[in-house]
Design a protein that fits this description.
The complex is a heterodimer.
Chain A lengths: L1 E10 L2 E10 L24 H5 L15 E7 L5 E7 L1 H4 L4 E6 L4 E2 L5 E7 L2 H8 L3 E6 L6 H4 L18 E5 L2 H7 L2 E9 L2 E2 L7 E6 L6 E5 L4 H11 L7 E4 L15 H13 L3 E4 L2 H7 L2 E2 L2 E9 L5 E10 L11 H5 L6 E7 L15 H19 L3 H7 L4 H14 L1 H6 L7 E9 L11 E7 L4 E4 L9 H13 L6 E4 L16 H28 L6 E4 L2 E4 L2 E7 H6 L5 E7 L14 E9 L5 E10 L7 H20 L30 E6 L17 H4 L1 H13 L10 H7 L4
Parallel strand pairs in A: 3-15, 13-14, 18-19, 22-23, 29-30
Antiparallel strand pairs in A: 1-2, 3-7, 4-6, 4-8, 5-7, 9-19, 10-17, 11-16, 12-13, 12-15, 17-18, 20-28, 21-22, 21-27, 24-25, 25-26, 28-29
Helix pairs in contact in A: 10-19, 14-15, 17-19
Chain B lengths: L18 H7 L1 H6 L9 H6 L13 E7 L2 E7 L5 H8 L18 E4 L2 E4 L12 E3 L1 H4 L7 H8 L9 H14 L5 H7 L10 H18 L1
Classes of the chains: A alpha+beta, B alpha+beta.
């Protein structure tokens, strides 16, 4: 059933032979230096024309006959008990078709769902919310982490403390590591709560059949199957009776998994009204209620010996994800740099604020910011060059190579040595290291179909969060079938297709592409069996290339792909592919590094990022064009986190102060620096495509690199994010 | 006309800002972002005798708009924005609703060739103007040069900001067919892209600018 293959894996100047066992029907993983036809070529995304012309249909754009518009009433109070809800005012408003009180009577943040209505227009639905009378019994609340951690604080969850259990990890002995150090530093770093700000808000269109036993939901989700399963449980329907569709998704960043409250509300209203209902959240509700990246306070201690090697890394961290957890940020401290004595302690503090949700590399941008700025403070104190300090404490050969590529491209040596201007504008440079492990998982299955007219489709129940999933899958299938990419149509975003995993954790490309490659290989083998008698050859002697099926040893003996398809006995033939578990391969981690240059106006405190140079590895890059888009995005989101983004709560009212997009400051076009990206190719042999995810690793180091550059510019660190002018001036002692 | 007369009396949620009060105060914001704000139905008011003020609403009124070079008749409440009229009454869903207060540019359309955020324009105020939406600019099989450049340069990720971004760039290139990257940055300063796809937007705009010069 399986066969043993030896693969040459690794990267330029560092390859080795690795022997693995693979299933017989699995395509052999590509090796280092293997030449491919379309895989790896810059390819415009296949659904680009639909998006650029407004023809791509997002959940927000779904309009069904007779559809109602739903809206959700939310608590204005951060902590309360709902004594009574009077829905009659809303029920009596002309144009209203359904009104529901939602289940949870315990309110723990301002913005929590209380009731929902469906009406014939979105304006009438909004009017109806104002007619619902809710009798709240308000309770004491706390929205600031420091206040919530006090013994005297109002309790977010009744009896217990707001301070969660501390999660600890320890290798070696930190106390001893600090004791033997030639030099140590200790500092506290803080990061703000960041919100996802998906441009398409959360929401769904739900529709039941007349019998009420078939539910179809269009929703803006990162996981159609996870939504299906949640809905099937709630409505006690067999999963097959629930169909979830997401053709296009206007951003998720980790906040769109499962049947979230607005999806549930749409489905419940649809059932109550007996017609389809659309619920798409207004921007303010999106900001308050659908997730955030928790804040952090990170007390860091580092020690180094006389050779500049780390002797101790110690992190004591706490963070608040409101009524949610997951505020830890210890990841980078445990693995980016090598050290014999590492201790981390992470504690969630609960507050009366909207729940956290996973957000692009959860915990890592904030952890990397604290670790890397501490590394720079340590290097300065110990008198070591910052890049050399990192080289000396990293044992990852991929990262070592990437440091050299990045330093050369960025001009690190000259820029790092450049004298500071005597004027008010100071330039500075910084470098930070990334890490991720986006190898993907087994589980997805793919179907590949060839039709008599020569057209080809691949179908997978995944979804495109914006990374170009359709394009990636089309490229992989086209490579295997010897076709140009535009001859393959990718169909995704529907639970009617074969199962796939959620698009999060950088899973999509590495989890789906191997299933598609296997499906395409199986389809190709079926086409070989049709072509073989025509070519007078054995199926195993054939290959697919240049839109032909031909004899490998004599390529002039060939038949066009279209002519083979014409001999398909029925309308089409199809084949399935399975994502098999990961092989050991070369390495399962990703390194990566980013260099940043900033200008800081020491009179106004304004920081401007002028240049970022990124070097990243993600196995074998499927499409350098869309891959570059992802890296640009990771960097820019990181600059926004470094300089602008900050969810503010009013401690007196317990509400979010800046839920709108004019009050919550995001990076814009005028803040965009020059960005250069280099992809460092690694043949990892972990799957048959060797593709790794890129969305998160490209975001991990960006904020840190900017913070390190600001430290270099000023000579003093700004240890709190965002690095707003007031904080910059305070760090300089000007205010 | 006193706009508040048209607003249905209803209890307000604490801290809520109504669209009406916001639109009143938004002129400065729109102007600062380089956008043109529509004055209230000037074209129609000019045709009324002196001292006579048009009275509409709160019930639905019949209005005529010119969308993508075609006249359309709509039965809508006067409070309906141009954005919602396009999306919910005319099925033109390429124009996106994102911030609903003129801060993000996702709903950008052209009004008499100039970019405006359609969430900040009442549909009734678009009477007498030529409205062009993303659908009117080009189609998947017959793309406008800016749309084609966006595809070629991969100036889109999730794609939700893309229609608005395309409309802003297209208007900028109408103003100056050989716009510089600085001009493009200013032209898209009011368009938010959360995926951070700006560098490729700039590339696309410059590609389109080159093409526009060649065609000229």
């Amino acid at each position: 059933m399986s066969r043993r293959v030896t693969l040459n894996l690794g990267f330029q100047g560092n390859t080795r032979d690795v022997t693995i066992d693979i299933p017989n029907d699995e395509p052999t993983p590509w090796q280092w230096g293997e030449r491919l036809a379309v895989f790896g070529q810059p390819t415009p995304r296949v659904d680009g024309p639909l998006k650029a012309t407004g023809a791509a249909h997002y959940t927000y754009d779904i309009e069904l006959p007779g559809m109602l518009y739903g809206a959700i009433l939310r608590s204005p109070w951060p902590h309360a008990r709902v004594r009574n809800i009077d829905l009659s005012g809303a029920q009596n408003l002309a144009g209203v078709r359904a009104v529901l009180a939602l289940d949870d009577r315990e309110i723990r943040f301002a913005g929590q769902e209380v009731a929902a209505v469906a009406a014939i227009t979105s304006d009438i639905a909004a009017d109806a919310l104002k007619l619902i009378k809710v009798d709240y019994e308000t309770q004491p609340f706390v929205v600031e982490m420091d206040d919530a951690a006090k013994d005297s604080a109002p309790r977010v969850f009744g009896g217990g403390s707001n301070v969660g259990r501390t999660s600890s990890s320890s290798i070696g002995e930190v106390a001893k590591g600090l004791e033997v150090a030639a030099s140590t530093i200790e500092a506290t770093y803080t990061t703000a709560v960041q919100t996802h700000v998906c441009l398409e808000t959360h929401g769904a269109v739900a529709s039941f059949n007349a019998a009420g036993d078939q539910l179809t939901v269009w929703c803006s989700t990162q996981g159609v199957f996870s939504v299906r399963d949640d809905l099937a449980v709630y409505f006690t329907l067999p999963p097959d009776n629930v169909r979830v569709i997401c053709e296009y998704l206007g951003g998720g960043f980790g906040s769109k998994f499962g049947a979230t409250p607005e999806i549930m509300a749409a489905a419940r209203l649809a059932r109550a009204a007996g017609v389809p209902v659309k619920v798409m959240l207004p921007r303010g509700d999106e900001s308050r209620s659908t997730g955030n990246r928790p804040n952090s306070e990170q007390k860091v201690r580092l020690g180094v010996d006389r050779d500049g090697r780390l002797t101790a890394i110690d992190l004591v961290q706490r963070g608040s994800g409101g009524i949610g957890g997951g505020a830890g940020s210890a990841g980078p401290f445990k693995s980016v740099y090598r050290c014999a004595n590492v201790r981390t302690q992470e504690t969630n503090i609960y507050t009366n604020a909207g729940p956290s949700a996973p957000m692009r590399a959860p915990g890592w941008p904030q952890g990397c910011f604290a670790l890397e700025l501490a590394m720079d403070e340590m290097a300065r104190k110990a008198g070591i060059d910052r890049l050399e300090f990192r080289r000396r404490n990293s044992d990852n050969p991929v990262r070592a190579a990437e440091y050299e590529i990045g330093a050369r491209a960025f001009g690190w040596a000259e820029k790092n040595e450049a004298a500071k201007s005597g004027g008010p504008i100071k330039r500075g440079v910084g470098v930070a290291s990334a890490e991720w492990h986006a190898v993907g998982v087994s589980g997805p299955e793919a179907q590949a179909i060839a039709h008599r007219d020569g057209s080809v489709e691949v179908r997978v129940g995944t979804q495109d969060i914006g990374t170009g999933t359709r394009t990636v899958l089309a490229i992989v299938a086209a490579e295997e079938l010897g076709l140009p990419v535009n001859r393959v149509k990718s169909e995704i975003g529907d639970t009617r297709f074969l199962f796939s995993v959620p698009s999060g954790g950088s899973l999509s490309a590495p989890s789906n592409s191997p299933a598609v490659r296997q499906a395409a290989a199986h389809l190709r083998d079926k086409l070989f069996r049709i072509a073989a008698p025509i070519l007078g050859a054995e199926p195993t002697d054939l290959e697919a290339a240049d839109e032909k099926i031909r004899v490998r040893t004599n390529p002039s003996r060939a038949i066009s792909f279209n002519d083979v398809c014409k001999r398909i006995p029925g309308d089409s033939i199809s084949a399935q592919g399975e994502r098999v578990p990961n092989y050991g391969g070369f390495r399962t981690d990703q390194a990566g590094c980013q260099f940043a240059e900033v200008e800081v106006d020491t009179e106004t405190g304004i920081v401007r990022v002028t240049h970022v140079d990124a070097v990243h590895d993600a196995g074998r890059i499927v499409d350098p064009l869309t891959a570059r888009s992802q890296v640009n995005g990771g960097i820019l989101m990181g600059i926004g986190f470094a300089l602008f983004e900050n969810r503010r709560m009013d401690p007196a009212l317990g509400i979010m102060v800046n839920p709108t997009m004019d009050d919550y400051k995001l990076l814009g076009a005028l803040d965009v620096p020059q960005i250069d990206v280099t992809f460092f190719e690694v043949a990892n042999g972990i799957t048959n495509t060797g593709v790794m995810g890129l969305g998160e690793v490209a975001h991990v180091a960006s904020t840190a690199a900017v913070a390190c550059a600001v430290y270099d510019a000023l000579g003093v660190p700004v240890r709190s994010l965002p690095m707003t002018p007031d904080r910059v001036l305070a760090a300089l002692g000007h205010v | 006309m006193n706009r508040d007369d048209r607003t249905p009396k209803s209890p307000r949620k604490p801290h809520a800002i109504s669209r009406r009060s916001f639109i009143k105060g938004a002129g400065a914001v729109a102007a600062a972002a380089g956008l043109v704000r529509v004055r209230s139905a000037e074209a129609d008011e000019k045709t009324l005798p002196p001292g006579v003020v048009e009275k509409l609403g709160p019930a639905a009124a019949t209005i005529e708009l010119n969308i993508n070079r075609k006249p359309v008749t709509l039965e809508i409440e006067p409070r309906v924005t141009l954005l919602r009229a396009l999306r919910e009454h005319l099925g033109l869903t390429g124009t996106k609703l994102v911030c609903d207060r003129g801060a993000c540019g996702a709903c950008t359309v052209h009004l008499d060739g100039k970019p405006v955020t359609s969430c900040m324009v009442l549909a009734i105020d678009a009477r007498g103007h030529e409205v062009t939406t993303i659908e009117g600019l080009g189609t998947p099989t017959n793309m406008h040069p800016v749309q084609a450049a966006f595809v070629e340069a991969d100036a889109q990720q999730c794609g939700f900001c893309t229609p608005g971004m395309v409309m802003s760039v297209a208007a900028a290139l109408e103003r100056n067919p050989s716009a510089t990257v600085e001009e493009i940055k200013h032209a898209t300063a009011g368009n938010t892209c959360r995926c951070g796809t700006y560098p490729h937007v700039f590339t696309a705009a410059l590609k389109a600018a080159g093409r526009a010069t060649e065609n000229a």
